[in-house]
Amino acid sequence: MSTFDPWSPAFVAHPYEAYRRLREHDPVSWFEPSGQFLVSRHEDVNALLRDRRLGRTYLHVATHEEMGRTAPPAQDEPFWKLNNNGMLDREPPDHTRLRRLVSQAFTPRRVEALRPVVQRLADGLVDAFVAKGGGDLIEEVAEPLPVTVIAELLGVPEADRHLLRPWSAAICGMYELNPSRDTAAAAVRAAEEFSDYLRGLARRRAADPQDDLVSALAAVEGLSEDELIGTCVLLLNAGHEATVNVTGNGWWALFRNPDQLQKLRTNAALVPVAIEELMRFDTPLQMFERWVLEDIELHGHTIRKGQEVALLFGSANHDPAVFADPEHLDIERRDNPHISFGAGIHYCLGAPSRGSSSSRRSARCWPRPPGCAWSGNRSGSPAT
């Protein structure tokens, strides 16, 4: 019997049978190891993402103690300062203000201007990969491309870009379930070093603006320096993590479905629709969390203020109540209301810039990255 066990390599490799059992038999279930209610059906996940009785944080309405929680250890404060200054862990009115300000600088025009740079970088990585007869797709193509693109977007000098991935990896270690003190200490060090680096870069750009996102953010009136830093770190961590996973999982899915790969090879016009289906079929970020700010009722369960729900995106994207034959990869699937970009006020800021058809609808291991759970890169690469 397949069970929900995020520590099991077999579950991480293929969680969808366990999700099916949850949807059919226990759509809202208490999971003692993480102290959360698991929510597995598309309708419920979609609704709770939009429900203002839940939030990414509770600190705008209550203290840790008032929510029955323990404050993080004092030695971890640099990490949480950085984390809490990104918009993903803010709620209105702060979230509304911060998203509006960041949107002034993070524009579709700025992203579109990167297209030739992205094409050049992708061509170079793929050409090198092919020339050597193949290799580790994750390490040699999927990882370096988004990190380099985001560094280019931010305006990080090329000589410093090697610092970004180690910082990001160390910071994301804090989102693991029950991280060790060594892991937490590494995350704190990375948060301090990354924050200091970005603070210096932002001040240089404020004095001598360039055509990059850090310069644009530094010029936004009302955006604090700490919020600028939190925004830049969020863009790197959230932007590259999901992209790496979509690439790795997507190619793995295509290799296992050669008929679909052949369709893509013979008809490049299918690529935009195929990307949507690949994001649905093997969801890049499998779970997002919400704190319960007011008591709610769901499928006979009373979920109390101060408790936490785990919204299983991977399960919702395989719900047969919404998707016909959901276990089948269909790169021509047109009716595809997947929720891989989220929903509600925390809908992915970068989704419109990806040209995603889902972004035009009105519609982040068991980590706890800024808002998400285990990253779900199941390509089998040694880099995963």
Note down, in words, how this protein is organized.
Strand 1 and strand 2 form a beta hairpin. By secondary structure, the protein is an alpha+beta fold.
List the helices and strands and how they pair.
Elements: H1 9-13, H2 16-25, E1 28-31, E2 36-39, H3 42-50, E3 54-55, H4 77-84, H5 94-105, H6 108-112, H7 115-131, H8 137-142, H9 144-154, H10 164-173, H11 181-207, H12 213-218, H13 225-256, H14 258-266, H15 271-281, E4 287-292, E5 296-298, E6 301-303, E7 308-312, H16 313-316
Parallel strand pairs: 2-7
Antiparallel strand pairs: 1-2, 3-4, 4-7, 5-6
Helix pairs in contact: 4-11, 4-13, 7-9, 9-13, 10-11, 11-13, 13-15
Mean pLDDT score: 88
The largest β sheet comes out as: 5 strands, mixed
Question: What is the helix tally?
Answer: 16
- For the biggest β-sheet, the strand order reads 1-2-7-4-3
Question: What shape does the CA trace take?
Answer: globular
Concise summary:
This protein is of the alpha+beta class and 384 residues long. The protein is 47% helix and 7% strand.
